[in-house]
Design brief:
The structure is a single chain. By secondary structure, the protein is α/β, with parallel strands linked by helices. Helix content is 23%, strand content 26%. The chain has seven helices and 13 strands. The chain has helices at 12-28, 57-65, 83-87, 125-128, 137-142, 161-171, 218-224; strands at residues 3-6, 33-37, 70-72, 107-112, 115-123, 151-157, 177-181, 191-192, 198-200, 207-215, 234-240, 243-246, 251-253. The chain has a six-stranded mixed β-sheet with strand order 4-5-6-7-9-8. The chain has a five-stranded mixed β-sheet with strand order 3-2-1-12-13, with no helix packed on it. A two-stranded antiparallel sheet has the order 10-11. Helix 1 runs parallel beside helix 2. The longest helix has 17 residues, at 12-28. The chain is globular, with a radius of gyration of 17 Å. 45% of the residues are buried.
């Protein structure tokens, strides 16, 4: 089974371009399963990047129509006003180990070419911050029961690379892959751990490249200078691509050559 996994999508321009390019990329790379992290896909509250992103149903419908099979999330999954509708969509998952009474499912099991595949979304306490309470990701994972012989892929939303390495090694041999998200900067390389689990500390961002994590710099600069902050906005510049491709034979960084992406 060949899996194409996209890291955090920032802004609707990136959504629009992915919707155009994913069908071609899936065909050219013989992709069986496409997964996209969409928690930053819309701006819901421009006065605060800490709680100002989220997901809309329009984004979900656009990407699923383009051939995306599973849409994952993180600390921004519940930011947008439409979160209850979005979280009820059968192809959307959110961090499973958040204990707050919030809508959505944390794991999705689907059939891909005759194989049973589990996609589970987990989040670290650091990424949750003081907004959400979490169970330790490894502890939560051990409470789950999956069909014997099924393939499990983890989107681990965490801010510190060592957290991602530790969870990946703890789950090595139990899951097919641990894909790190949240920091928007890819920590190479995608590789295979000793017991066979694929791992990359962060898949990277899909969004505008000029700025800070897909956002314009001035909001953060003024905050650092202890001046009155301004509403944040999405950055400008060419779109940056953050994706990996892996299959049962080998692991490799996906290189997609396209004039619309860096």
């Amino acid at each position: 089974m060949r899996v194409l996994f996209f890291g955090d999508v920032v802004g609707e321009n990136a959504v629009d371009q992915l919707a155009i390019d994913i069908p071609r990329w899936k065909k050219e790379n013989r992709v069986d399963l496409a997964i996209v992290n969409i928690e930053n896909s819309v701006v819901s509250h421009p006065n605060s990047p800490e709680c100002g992103f989220g997901v809309s149903l329009a984004v979900v419908n656009r990407l699923t129509a383009a051939g995306v099979d599973v849409l994952t999330g993180g600390n921004h999954s519940w930011d947008a006003p439409s979160c209850e509708t979005v979280m009820s969509h059968p192809q959307v998952v959110r961090p499973a180990n958040v204990v707050d009474d919030l809508p959505g499912r944390g794991c999705l099991t689907l059939q891909v070419n005759g194989d049973s595949v589990n996609v589970i979304n987990l989040m670290s306490a650091g990424a949750a911050g003081n907004r959400y309470q979490t169970i330790r990701p490894y502890e939560y994972f051990q409470t789950q029961s999956f069909e014997p012989g099924s393939i499990t892929i983890v989107d681990f939303h965490a801010g510190i690379p060592v957290e991602k390495y530790v969870l990946a090694y703890a789950l090595d041999g139990q899951v097919a892959a641990v894909m790190g998200t949240h920091t928007h900067e890819p920590t190479l390389k995608l590789h295979r751990l000793p017991k066979g689990t694929y791992f990359v500390a962060d898949v990277g961002m899909n969004g505008p490249s000029d700025g800070i994590l897909g956002m314009g710099a001035q909001h953060f600069v003024k905050k650092e200078q202890q001046q009155a902050t301004i509403d944040f906005h999405l950055a400008k510049g060419p779109l940056q691509l953050g994706a990996v491709l892996f299959d049962t034979e080998k692991a490799e960084i996906l290189r997609l050559q396209d004039t619309n992406w860096l």
